[in-house]
Amino acid sequence: xxxxxxxxxxxxxxxxxPGGCFLVFGIGLSDQYADDREAAxxxxxxxxxILALAGLLFxxxxxxxxxxxxx
Length: 71
Known about the structure:
This protein has helices at residues 3-32, 37-62. By secondary structure, the chain is an all-alpha fold. Helix 1 packs antiparallel against helix 2. The model has no long low-confidence stretch (mean pLDDT 87).
């Protein structure tokens, strides 16, 4: 595992906490209050963006390089 892959893995793990918090609060807000539906949608969109970035970083951390790739 290269240094860049380790950094990507650490950043992905760190992004799971805020992404999960936005997801939990967005789901909780949409179920509890009918008036705050717009805020819940925004929280869920932010959660989707953060968790998608974490997924991309996990992919970078665990992808296999083709044989013979020196970089």
